[in-house]
Amino acid sequence: IVCNAICITYPSSSPFLTLHAVRQWSNVPFFTVPLARAHGKSFAHRSELRQAKRIVVKLGSAVVTRGDECGLALGRLASIVEQVVLINRNGREMMIVTSGAVAFGKQRLRHEILLSQSVRQALHSGQNQLKDMSLPVLEARACAAAGQSGLMALYEAMFTQYSTCTAQILVTNLDFHDDQKRRNLNSTLHELLRMNIVPIINTNDAVVPPPEPNSDLQGVISIKDNDSLAARLAVEMRADLLIALSDVEGLYDSPPGSDDAKLLDTFYPGDQHSITYGTKSRVGIGGMEAKVKAALWALQGGTSVVIANGTHPKVTGHVITDIVEGKKVGTFFSEVKPAGPTVEQQTEMARSAGRTLASLEPEQRSDIICILADLLTERKDEILSANKNDMEHAVSTGRLSPAMLKRLSLSSSKLNSLSIGLRQIAVSSQDSVGRVLRRTRVANKLELEQITVPIGVLLVIFESRPDCLPQVSALAIASGNALLLKGGKEAANTNRILHELAQEALSIHGVKDAIQLVSTREEVEDLCRLEKMIDLIIPRGSSQLVRDIQRAAKSIPVLGHSEGICHVYVDHEASVDKAIKIIRDSKCDYPAACNAMETLLVHRDLLRTPLFDQIIDMLRTEHVKVHAGPKFASYLTFSPSEVKSLRTEYGDLECCIEVVDSMQEAVDHIHKYGSSHTDVIVTENEDTAEQFLQQLDSACVFWNASSRFADGYRFGLGAEVGISTARIHARGPVGLEGLLTTKWVLRGEGQTAADFSEQGSMTYLHENLPVAQVLPGHRTTS
User: Fold this and answer.
1) Who contacts 727 (Cβ-Cβ below 8 Å, separation ≥6)?
2) Which GO terms describe its biological process (predicted)?
3) Which pLDDT score is estimated for 429?
4) Could you give the count of Cα atoms lying within 13 Å of 332 in the half-sphere of its Cβ?
5) Between 74-89 and 140-160, two packed helices, what is the crossing angle to 10 degrees?
6) Contact by Cβ (8 Å): 674, 698
7) pLDDT tens digits, residue range 143-194?
8) C-alpha span between 674 and 680 (Å, rounded)
9) Residue 413 Cα to chain centre, angstroms
10) How many Cα atoms are found within 13 Å in the side-chain-facing hemisphere of 189?
11) Contact 238, 232 (CB under 8 A)
12) Rounded to an integer, what distance in angstroms lies between the CA atom of residue 638 and that of residue 656?
């Protein structure tokens, strides 16, 4: 076995045959190949990993081998190979440092020994019945020698499926300590990468001596295992990123599996003192301590590092691509420590302060909201100045649509309206947390209460709507919930000052941290993965944002609606004046709002009538672009552009007009194409209206009123965190009540379930009690 040998394998479709060669590159200078990125400094943030051009993927023994440690995890390896090929085809240089030769060889040698023993026993006894056979302890270097060729053949077969070439390189510690061999290795790897070949590197375990303790030279890491090999190789090759896959999620602040263990999203060189290391992996000679040491060495050398789980069946298929895309996977090693707390720390701070907030007296929570309402008007110049900066930047970049710019803009009148709405919330907060909903005497001296309590930690994600921040802050305060806010960067200045005002109001009762504004580079998808820390997500923004969050938040409930496809149905018995007024307001008052009309349904009998003509004239005057539904288009000789879909949220001065034959057909149309948000009937026939209101399954259903009334402030809720089209918990405009849940409180005097069995002495009463009745020693807010 030659330590400096390479084995280049081409797919079967290549005109070249498999080539084995030994190349000496003694006359090639070290580090001669220019890179796309100047090396020497690692990436500071995860989001920058998308810029990585040269990547080393280290596959630990636990990733490569099966659970029985004999043989390879073929399905897992196939998935990893597919990801490496995908990233390579996107223009990145990929190298693999792999374990597995020992496990593969162990499987092979065991099979040979069993076969040999069975043959000898059969010859010796002359019988087919074999005695129990015991296997000798297999020496690791012999296993490596037997397994290397099979391991490489497997990689070759897998990469060949994607027409990707691979090359095998075996190294030992001496290859890095000998300058000549280092130059040879470096030049070989650069030549392979230049030809878009994926090098597969492993320690030559067949000849490598056992590691010597404390043998590291100053500034040099010894090749004791594949962790140190990957780190050394990444630095030597000036790789941008090292991905180390193991059988743990990443680095924990205490041994994984212990009660208080927390996964570290980011690890900084100065944090070693806070880490307690556990046992090693089930296979391999390294452990987490070795991984951290290797990672820090690579980081110091200018290579970013992520340690992640490569064995979890739910993430293995995309773990490498997720890391390269900058998603929050595993532990990211960074030399740049942020000035503020991490989002995990912010969530913990909010939860702790939120519990104190929930324990305050209702009057105290009301005081906080009133102070915030005062601050909105007292500091309006400061708020509007920050908003002006955001608006100017948004206009100069040209990235926001007119509708989004309108949402971003604040004014004195908006701030005054916000202040009024907050005072409404302050009043309603007097009777929120701790309200008794039900009281039952279960048995003698055993009484049960159902009371309202906060949900916990809310995550509100909003875009281009800074006025959302004080609204949801007030609702969170009133309901005793902790709040995590993630606003769009287009409103960064406005959000910052509004959050400062919210915390200023909270500080009067020592709960400043109950509301946190996420200002780090957290991706929305990463926030949606904090299922152990966040109890409810509320998106405020475009339908695309809501859909993305609903898709990403697989383990956290999402309160909201993905679309606001609102309908106005004009019945044949509608009032002309009411119809014109309602349609104009529903479409033109605020076209970007989720409660704006998107489809106008018109009874067939109204076609070619003065009412219909007036509707069309009004829409033309208001510059509303009309799209014709299929039935409406069939009535016209020259129709407007036919609608592409009847399930469209325009969010602008556009709408669809469609014709229906009856109220029932209107209801059926809305059920088929609507979004269960808000729908309106305009008619003077009370029976028709009541049937519409009863049959239609939408969160808000109106009779002779604009769809724009679907709003928490207009409903008298003070404000809303959003409008929900869900079927459970909360529906329609979600105000204070929608941010509360319940808990059951049982007060007894030593009763047990056994007391109520057939042999017991007690019986159930289950008597309903008035909620206004106060239990001894218990204060109720009812």
Assistant:
1) none
2) L-proline biosynthetic process
3) 87
4) 25
5) 50
6) yes
7) 888 888 888 889 999 999 999 999 999 988 778 888 898 899 999 999 999 9
8) 12
9) 36
10) 31
11) no
12) 16
